[in-house]
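Service request form, structural biology core

Requester: graduate student, group of Dr. S.
Request type: structure prediction, single chain
Budget code: on file
Notes: please return the result as structure tokens.

Sequence provided:
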Amino acid sequence: MADWYLKHPVAKRIREYGFEDSVQEDATMLVYLDLCEAKGWHHVDVHPCDHLRLSFLTAKEFPRSSLNVVVPISLEYQLSMEKLDKLLNGIKVPSHLAVDEEQDTSKSNGADNLNCIVIAIVESGSTIVYYYMHRGLHPPTEGSLSKKLIHPFRKDERKTKKRRRQKDESTKNQEGREKRQTASDGEQQSAEVVKND
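Core staff response, request fulfilled:
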């Protein structure tokens, strides 16, 4: 990693948790930077989960939105239903943080666990994919992240492909016109040479 990366105060704090898992530490730091710098989330903070031996983040997508618990994992991490259940049951949100009704631990069957977490899967090339994991089955909400990201992307992708086709066609048409112009210029010059002889 770059020198500035290791000197970052959050990276130092993550290492101080003492989990000694450099892959998970790097994943946590990359997700932290992505949420703060690229996605512009608010109130992003890192917390340890001692009994699961990992660090997780809390953040808000918008200043007044609900608190999200984000668990960074590497692509190599073998995620199973058992491990997801351990994450949902094992991560405890610090009590000083305001928690919304969906994350409210007092309403989840008397257990002190979460109803939803965001899994941030980090690939070695620093690509990050976010998945919202709910306890039980939940349909997507009207303003869900998937609708905001997936559907407009497909529409934009179609527009981009159409523009490329149009550009390719206009380039071919332009090249054809230039060839015809060059050919007709050459014929005119030949005709002038023949007349002069």
